[in-house]
Amino acid sequence: LTGGSDGIGLGIAQRLAAAGAELVLPVRNRGKGEAAAAHIRAAAPDAVVRLHDLDLSSLESVAALGETLRAEGAPIHLLVNNAGVMTPPERQSTADGFELQTGTNHLGHVALVAHLLPLLRAGRARVTSQVSIAAASGSIHWDDLSWEQSYDGMKAYRQSKIMLGLFGLELDRRSRELGWGISSNLSHPG
Fold first, then answer.
1. Which one is catalytic: 110, 128, 135, 157?
2. Of 1, 147, 159, 183, which sits 20 to 30 A from 47 (CA to CA)?
3. Could you give the CA distance from residue 55 to residue 26 in angstroms, rounded to a whole number?
4. How far apart are CA 67 and CA 119, in angstroms?
5. Exposure pattern of 88-115 as b/e (b: 16+ CB <10 Å)?
């Protein structure tokens, strides 16, 4: 579960832990992650919560988590792509030079799924990607995908959620076509 250290993600984590799920919480901020894990364990005393480091705005960080989890070898039965960045007032870039919202909300999750694909297939996983109703009034900014010529935080956010939604649909289509055993769905948390 990405983004499980606060907000909607923490609520999802608590519900999953209460249902008996073993949680892997990849977090950008270790202190915040430890506080979230303590909160989850207080609500569900038998909860199994493991923290890992992850910064979705860095493809190197995503690859490192993928390598760690593949080395552990445990099948993944559920992946919730929940973490996200919303409307920074000024354009920011990821470590790899992408606009922050596109890089974090979309590309980071795509890379994570790619790195975890063997484990997702082994677990016949359900992948749920958090999109937003804001995407319904957005579009892809094809002439400037990374918002370098002009920046509009809300439009960039909408674009990132459209992209993540399209990825989720394509992941499901390919899994069905190629027999991967993964189901992919979209969720609007509101």
1. 157
2. 183
3. 8
4. 11
5. eeebbebeeebbbbbbbbbbbbbbbbeb
Q: Which residues make Cβ contacts (< 8 Å) with residue 107, sequence separation at least 6? A: 59, 94, 96, 98
Structure tokens at 49: 């919560």
157 is catalytic: yes
Q: Measured between alpha carbons, how far is 138 from 42 in angstroms, rounded to an integer?
A: 40
Quick check: 190 pLDDT over 80? no
pLDDT in tens, 11-32: 999 999 999 999 999 999 999 9
126 and 80 Cβ atoms separated by less than 8 Å: no
| CA–CA distance, 20 with 58 (Å, rounded to integer) | 31
